[in-house]
């Protein structure tokens, strides 16, 4: 039974971590695997009344791995804790099957009463590095928690939550296949292209607004998109319209100078 579980854990780590090259490597070098194995023993002691022994085994596991799993926590099959250092899992936490946690994750409590005070993670949840999931809340099946998010409320199944406090950014597609680091493998966005796209959108919006304002002011657009077709993807149609914009503001006949208004 123990060996069957261990083999299952090793296989699940290999499928979820592109950096895992062999079973032996996983067995020897993955603190997450060691911590879960320590937890199985400490939980066995805990549920049979040997509470101090359970705590002690959990403590030894923490010394070796940097991962603290309270022996009272209920951990489902194939939990993968990647890197692991700094992970804390509280006494009344419940973790479903095939959950992935990265380093620095806390499944913590927010109150001092002795009942259920830690989160429940349903099957297939992925929690990014440094995220804090706090209180007796439930994170729905297949949900993803972004790195460094602080989650304080229930999370519906299949959604992605980011930020502090965490807010929903998207619903997950029907494709529930595991994505390492919570990211879809083949379509990683090019951040520079995304930034340029976003800037182009903003420039187009600004030009539209300037055109509207100029039309209101002068009865016709004087700048518009015509001068910046390469930025907004428009075509230059005809000669550049409007007066000379090198003239200082306030010197136009239809927009009296400040000096004239103030008499200075
Ligand atoms: C949350 C996560 C799963 C979302 O990935 P995704 O589906 O590819 O989503 P995107 O990158 O398209 O981001 C969607 C939006 O959320 C924002 N976002 C993503 N991750 C965020 C985070 N951790 N904190 C704050 N905002 C975040 C993005 O800026 C984007 O906002 P926008 O729509 O305003 O541009 C991913 O960003 C994440 O944090 N994964 C954990 C990775 C990890 O811990 N790795 C450790 C490896 S050792």
Secondary-structure topology with pairs:
Layout: H1 2-16, H2 23-29, H3 31-47, H4 51-65, E1 68-69, E2 74-75, E3 80-81, E4 88-89, E5 94-95, E6 100-101, E7 106-108, E8 120-121, E9 126-127, E10 132-134, E11 138-139, E12 144-145, E13 150-151, E14 159-162, E15 167-171, H5 191-218, H6 229-232, H7 258-262
Helix pairs in contact: 3-4
This protein binds coenzyme A (COA).
What does this structure look like?
This protein is of the alpha/beta class and 264 residues long. The protein has two domains: 2-189, UDP N-Acetylglucosamine Acyltransferase, domain 1, CATH 2.160.10; 193-262, no CATH class. It is built from seven helices and 15 strands. It has helices at 2-16, 23-29, 31-47, 51-65, 191-218, 229-232, 258-262, and strands spanning 68-69, 74-75, 80-81, 88-89, 94-95, 100-101, 106-108, 120-121, 126-127, 132-134, 138-139, 144-145, 150-151, 159-162, 167-171. The longest helix is centred in the C-terminal third of the chain and has 28 residues, at 191-218. It is elongated and about 85 Å long. Mean pLDDT is 84; it is low at 234-264. It binds coenzyme A. Residues 83, 102, 128-129, 144, 146-149, 160, 162-163, 169, 181-183 line the site of coenzyme A (COA). Residues 221-264 are annotated as: Disordered. This is Serine acetyltransferase. Residues 2-36 form the Serine acetyltransferase N-terminal domain. It is an enzyme of class 2 (transferase).
């Amino acid at each position: 039974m123990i060996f069957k579980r261990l083999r299952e854990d090793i296989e699940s780590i290999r499928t979820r971590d592109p950096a895992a090259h062999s079973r032996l490597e996983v067995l020897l070098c993955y603190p997450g695997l060691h911590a879960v194995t320590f937890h199985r023993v400490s939980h066995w002691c805990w549920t049979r009344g040997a509470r101090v022994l359970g705590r002690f085994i959990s403590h030894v596991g923490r010394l070796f791995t940097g991962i603290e799993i309270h022996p009272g926590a209920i951990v489902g099959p194939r939990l993968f804790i990647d890197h692991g250092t700094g992970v804390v899992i509280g006494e009344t936490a419940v973790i479903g099957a095939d959950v992935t946690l990265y380093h620095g994750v806390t499944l913590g409590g927010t109150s001092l009463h002795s009942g259920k005070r830690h989160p429940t993670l349903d099957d297939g949840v992925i929690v990014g590095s440094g995220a804090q999931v706090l209180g007796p809340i439930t994170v729905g099946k297949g949900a993803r928690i972004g790195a460094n998010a602080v989650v304080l409320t229930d999370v519906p199944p299949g959604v992605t939550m980011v930020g502090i406090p965490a807010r929903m950014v998207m619903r997950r597609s029907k494709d529930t296949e595991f994505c390492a680091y919570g990211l879809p493998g083949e379509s990683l966005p090019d951040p520079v292209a995304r930034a340029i796209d976003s800037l182009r959108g903003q420039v187009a919006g600004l030009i539209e607004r300037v055109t509207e304002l100029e039309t209101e002011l002068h009865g016709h657009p004087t700048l518009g998109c015509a001068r910046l077709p390469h930025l907004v993807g428009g075509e230059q149609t005809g000669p550049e319209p409007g007066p000379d914009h090198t003239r200082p503001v306030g010197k136009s006949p239809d927009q009296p100078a400040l000096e004239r208004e103030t008499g200075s």
